[in-house]
Design brief:
Number of strands: 0
Organism: Gemmobacter caeni
Protein name: Putative transposase
Helix content: over 70%
Oligomer: single chain
GO molecular function, one term: DNA binding
Shape: elongated
Largest sheet: none
Structural class: mainly alpha
Order of helices and strands: HHHH
Pfam families: HTH_Tnp_1 (PF01527)
Distance between the termini: 44 Å
CATH architecture of the largest domain: Orthogonal Bundle
Strand content: under 5%
Radius of gyration: 21 Å
Number of helices: 4
C-alpha cells in the first residue's frame, strides 16, 4: 500500500479548514493535492476527529491481520483434506 504524504491528523485538519469555509480548490492548491484526493479524504474522514481516525486505522490493521489468519487456516484445512483423500 502506498504511504501518504499526510498523516491522519493533517488530513483531518485540512478537512476542518474546508468546513470552516475555505473552498475545495483553494485548499487543494494550498496543500498540493488533487481534487480527487481531497474528495476521497472527505468520503473517508469526513466528520471524524483525530481519535476516531486512529481507531479506524487500528481496526483496519486488525481486520487485515484476521483476514490473513483466516486465509492461512483455510489453506491448512484444504491441505489436510488433500492428504486424507490421498491416504484412503
Amino acid at each position: 500500500m502506498k504511504r501518504s504524504r499526510f498523516t491522519e491528523e493533517q488530513i483531518i485538519g485540512i478537512l476542518k479548514e474546508h468546513q470552516a469555509g475555505l473552498g475545495a480548490k483553494e485548499l487543494c492548491r494550498k496543500h498540493g493535492v488533487s481534487d480527487a484526493t481531497f474528495y476521497k479524504w472527505r468520503a473517508k474522514f469526513g466528520g471524524m476527529e483525530v481519535s476516531d481516525a486512529k481507531k479506524l486505522k487500528a481496526l483496519e490493521a486488525e481486520n487485515a491481520k484476521l483476514k490473513k489468519l483466516l486465509a492461512e487456516q483455510m489453506m491448512d484445512v484444504s491441505t489436510l483434506k488433500e492428504m486424507l483423500g490421498k491416504n484412503f
